[in-house]
Amino acid sequence: MNPDSSAHAGPVEDVVSWLAEHEEITSLQAAVCDLNGILRGKRIPIDQVTKVLDGSIRMPLSIVGVDIWGEDIVGNEHVFANGDVDGHCIPTGRGIIPVNWTSRPSALIPLWMFEEGARPYLADPRQALARIVERYRVLGLRPVVATELEFYLVDPDAESAVPPISPYTGKRLDSDAILSIDELDDFGDFFWDVYEECRKQNLPADAALAENGVGQFEINMRHTSDPLKAADDAVLFKRLVKGVARKHQLSATFMAKPYGTRSGSGFHVHFNIIDEDDRNIFDNGTSEGSPVLSRAVAGLLNGMSESTLVFAPHYNSYRRLRPDTHAPTLASWGYENRTTAIRIPGGDHASRRIEHRVAGADANPYLVVAAILGAALYGIENELVPPAPVRGRAYSERLPKLPADWASAVNAFEDGEIIPAFFDEALRTMFVACKRQEIAGFASNVTDFEFAAYLEII
Domain of 181: which CATH number? Predict the structure, then answer.
């Protein structure tokens, strides 16, 4: 099962002992992550903790494929063909994760899905990533991954995105403040609690900074040679930030584009690959990097259009992917170039790495990391060669375009030639069906903007 590390992982006896030391916790949350990156599961009394830890908890396999509103997918062949069977929900190895921002303290035990016979259920996004990581392991390789997540703090009482009121000045934020130390200070208590909860949950939070948008921030995670833990950390971090924000009478959103005219929120992934001797195989002592790096870049570019649905999975996602917004629209790459989709950062050649800049903060971290590592491996194994790197403004180049809208991205994913190399058929069909149901849901609702524009004019 490739369990990852945790501050509270260990034998059942250790978990029971930990709970005995935390008498304030009277219930547990046991949950799996669905294709939209949302945790779904059950609330369990603590006297049932051994049932969770020994894998006795069962939930429908279809739970990983519900739509964004939590509705079953109509006509889902993975539901009706088998009678909507249960899967075995096994702890990931993370152990117990304290949850302290709720009205009463609780704790979470993350799970992932298996079929009968202990077969990994490959429509589970965490299982999809584990499958890619195993392919690297067989080759004697380990990806080293770090993530950067952007988010907005907004007014919790507003019906649409409205900047929050500063707890320090009592005034509503009204301007962009990139890298503003003062704006970080304004929300100092919020960030103090975020870092404290990250410590308790074993999340390697690093630098925090104010981003381009009003009330927009970014917190980076330190790199790890366990990609599963990197994705776990991102999923848990998103939930943590939203929970701590509520505690401070704020709302936090990881929407890709909550404001139409302000910066979108991205989910950038940095990675390199080390061999059995802990050598970075992207490094050849030069600023350009090794031939393996070039092949990985080529794989990422070749798979980018058909993977766009993973990086931009929602209706709102495509408001972010616009030219001249520091969000990519073309399958491009370059050295120290933030207008490209793939950036090769400068610095010490021993740390040579790839930064993948396509995904929005609204994407599922498991699927994002799986798509990136899968496409990179495809390029390495097939010895692909990338085009020349872009110098200057990438938006002006004549390069392959990413799908510009949601429906086109669904079609590109469904018809992709590289996608089947790293995502199982069950995941692909379930993801496509989920997204098409969501598209239909948005298409059947008339927005207030449409109503105001057309009511008495036409």
Answer: 3.30.590.10
Residue 325 has what pLDDT? 77
**Do 53 and 197 belong together in one domain?**
no
Count the neighbouring beta carbons within 10 Å of the beta carbon of residue 125.
30
Which range has the worst mean pLDDT, 91-105, 141-155, 190-204?
91-105
Cα separation of 281 and 6, whole Å?
Answer: 28
Q: Which two tokens stand for residue 310?
A: 């993973």
Q: Is residue 342 part of a domain?
A: yes
Range of the domain at 172: 134-423
Asked whether residue 349 is domain-assigned, the answer is: yes
454 within a domain of the structure (yes/no): no
- Which range among 74-88, 111-125, 436-450 shows the weakest confidence by mean pLDDT? 74-88
**Structure pTM?**
0.93
Q: Which residues of 84-104 are buried (b: 16+ CB within 10 A; e: fewer)?
A: eebbbbbbbbbbbbbbbbeee
Distance between CA atoms of residues 105 and 84, nearest Å = 34
| Strand positions, DSSP E, 46-82 | 58-60
Q: Residue 365 burial (CB < 10 Å; 0-12/13-18/19+)?
A: buried
**Position of tokens 């299982």?**
127
Beta strands 142-154 and 216-221, pairing class: antiparallel
Q: How confident is the model at residue 5 (pLDDT cuts 50, 70, 90)?
A: very low
Query: How far apart, in whole angstroms, are the C-alpha atoms of residue 377 and residue 137?
Result: 12
Domain count, the chain: 2
In the chain, the N- to C-terminal Cα span, in Å, equals 60
What's the CATH code of the domain at 39?
A: 3.10.20.70
| 126 part of a folded domain | no
Length of the chain: 458
- C-alpha–C-alpha distance, residues 41 and 120, integer Å: 18
